[in-house]
Amino acid sequence: MERKKTALISVYEKKNVVNLARFLRDMGVEIISTGGTYKLLKEKGIDVINLSDYTGFPEILDGRVKTLHPKVFGGILALKENGAHMATLEEFGISKIDLVVVNLYPFERAYRMRRPEEELIELIDIGGVSLIRAAAKNYRECVVVTSPEQYDVLMEEMRERDGKVSLLTRMKFAREAFRLTSHYDRIIEGFFAGILGKKEEEKEFPGVLTLNFAKVMDLRYGENPHQRACLYREEGTGFSPILSAYQHHGKQLSFNNILDADAAFSLVLEFEEPCACIVKHHGPCGVGRADNILDAFRKAYLADPTSAFGGIIALNRTLTLEVANEITSSFFEVVIAPAYEEEALNTLKKKKNLRILEVPLDEYKKEHFYDMRKIRGGLLVQDADWEEDDPSMWEVVSDREPTRREWEALKFAWKVVKWVKSNAIVLAIQDRTLGIGGGQPSRVDAVELAIKKAHSQGHYTGGTALASDGFFPFRDSIDLAAEAGVTAVIEPGGSIRDREVIDAANEHDIALVFTKKRHFRH
Questions:
Q1: What is the three-class DSSP state of 125?
Q2: What is the fold, at CATH topology level, of the domain defined by 237-360?
Q3: 281 included as an active-site residue
């Protein structure tokens, strides 16, 4: 006579569990259950055994210990073909457990909701993870089911195979089980890392870097139509503007849209005052700041309206109707802002293909994170270039001090240049960029490009400030800047020819500031 099968069901997410339990009972499977799951199944008239009655031991410590018992884990881990194992089960009255249906406390959901530390600690599942790992280890003899989405697959296969489950399905479920516990543990590790990060900056990179990403969605394609692509969320990390955004309107974001929107919004977060930025191909083409967001947008757009066509707009203030009217007079791919006036939103929605994103800035805070770059067979990891610079550390190395207006222009240009691909040059006045030269293999070429861009849009470059993300290796960039009318320059310094560069600045009566900090971006 074939032994009656036994299932252990203990779930936090109770979606469809009643249907599954009824099906199992109809198939002649005995069910053991715990706590809330037991109560629910009993209320629905399903014959079920309370785990405490089975083990002869009650739940203790306010439910912290429920399933951690030899009568449970012995039944899951015993091997039928091992005579000693089966003799042990018989000696201690342990039932062989053939199916474990478990899902975990919602630690991840609570963590994202920024629940208090004490509450999160209580949501760290111990028994559930242990059950899942034990059943997955013994997958040939114990089926492990960790998600309501797997119930239909399980039931269909048991119907077709007279109550049995194929080895392939068992292996797939086991793989999903270990993937789940790995993901769960990574979230918890991120929680503790966050606590430690608040109390003490990590001094060293971890010896083993474990990354945990959950798939958000498939994308239509990658950078180019022939490349497949999808978007993942890194779990256990802080605020992500794009992944936290609500899309009001427009087509699905593309791979390139996501990259550019993230770059644009990261730049405007550098500024406390109203700021607007327009990005194309991951680099800013215009940045403006003002007392109000309309003027900030106008300054950003008029910096380089040619390049702004088809770009991504980011604002750090509520988008008003006046701004919306200006945006709809041209073509843009994406607009991203912390809030929208209702009339502004309705106006923007008239643009059929404009993607409108709202980012909850109340969730934003500057915090340490790693910048990672994939290479073939490896990963480069560095601290993100995210900390604010301290102007008190800067040094005026020229004979002439910058004027008040030049200081304002230099500080503005320096904030922008760190977001431009190296070699990077930004030509600006105190509230807007005039020309941006980025991605050039030669620094003097970047200077020439920034000047050319400014002149091509009819900007007067006399009395402007110039920022460079790296030092000048020769005086030629200073000479070129002087010809364009630049009167103040800011750069890291550190070249073996710094003296030559300083002398050139003094010859042209240019105020030169060394920041002693580089902002390369590759």
A1: coil
A2: Cytidine Deaminase; domain 2 (3.40.140)
A3: yes
